[in-house]
Design brief:
Helices cover 30% and strands 13% of the residues. It is α/β, with parallel strands linked by helices. The longest helix is centred in the last third of the chain and has 15 residues, at 206-220. The radius of gyration is 19 Å and the shape is globular.
Length: 267
């Protein structure tokens, strides 16, 4: 079954609504800029019953409300009586950073480990999975320049998650233009001055993308089963909004999305 087949299933059976406050979320890849922002966004509103993170060794500085799950390999077999490790998992691919020593303890998933990690999570009882690419196209490793390998995505989709979402790197739509001709002229002049950095590579803020991803995790349980792909334009649009809740709700329900308001370019 292809990704398209799985995506078509998203409009069929609906999952019973469940309060996000009763859900356990787990993050794989919490050490980078985007991963740490996702963890902060998960912990801040106390929407989830438990927030867990995969680590390769114990964290020296514990964060209030954050539970650490130590993992060394994805080959271990699931014990039938073992409770699920989480209801929803988020795999965050990100660039390595060394803000402090704590980041080194977090599991940093490699692109080639996507399928084994997803299979391990599925064996551990995870029902929903969100795979998040770096928030900026400039931050993509070579293995992710064209998105994850299609075979890996197909392998993850075939595992049988009730809900699966691939979140692409944020990129603005190419057809956004200001309404006033003077603003369009100003945008054109400013774009010429910024020619050294392509507009598609100008990064959005990691915290903004993290807010979108966490809102997606909070609303996903009440949406239809199936596989979805959050396109780059949707992620970019969410990063322009103060609160992406309405956008996420409309997208999950396959309704018309709110209008895009392009931010004005300034010197």
């Amino acid at each position: 079954m292809t990704l398209i087949n799985h995506a078509l299933r998203a409009g069929h059976a609906r999952m019973p609504a469940a309060a996000a406050s009763a859900v356990t979320a787990l993050v794989a890849g919490g050490g980078g800029a985007l991963g740490s922002a996702v963890l902060e966004a998960l912990l801040a509103p106390r929407q989830f019953a438990h927030v867990r993170v995969l680590a390769t060794r114990p964290l020296h500085a514990a964060v209030q409300g954050l539970e650490t799950v130590i993992v060394e390999t994805f080959d271990d077999a699931l014990v039938p009586t073992e409770p699920p490790i989480a209801d929803i998992a988020l795999i965050v691919f990100d660039r390595k950073r060394h803000a402090n020593g704590r980041e080194l303890a977090f599991l940093r998933p490699a692109p080639e480990a996507l399928a084994p990690l997803a299979a391990w999570l599925h064996r551990r009882g995870v029902r929903a999975l969100i795979v998040v690419l770096p928030h900026s196209p400039a931050g993509l490793p070579d293995a992710l320049k064209a998105g994850l390998a299609s075979l890996d995505e197909q392998a993850v989709a075939a595992l049988g998650f009730e809900q699966l979402v691939f979140v692409r790197s944020a990129q603005p739509p190419s057809n956004i233009r200001a309404r006033q001709w003077l603003q369009r002229l100003a945008d054109g002049l400013l774009a010429q001055m910024r020619i050294m950095v392509a507009s598609t590579n100008q990064p959005v803020r990691a915290a903004k993308v993290a807010r979108f991803v966490v809102e997606l995790a909070a609303q996903l349980g009440a949406s239809a089963h199936g596989t979805r792909v959050a396109p780059p334009e949707l992620v970019w649009q969410a990063a322009q909004m103060r609160d992406p809740a309405a956008l996420v709700e409309a997208w999950l329900a396959a309704r018309e999305l709110p209008a895009i308001n392009a931010p004005r370019m300034r010197l």
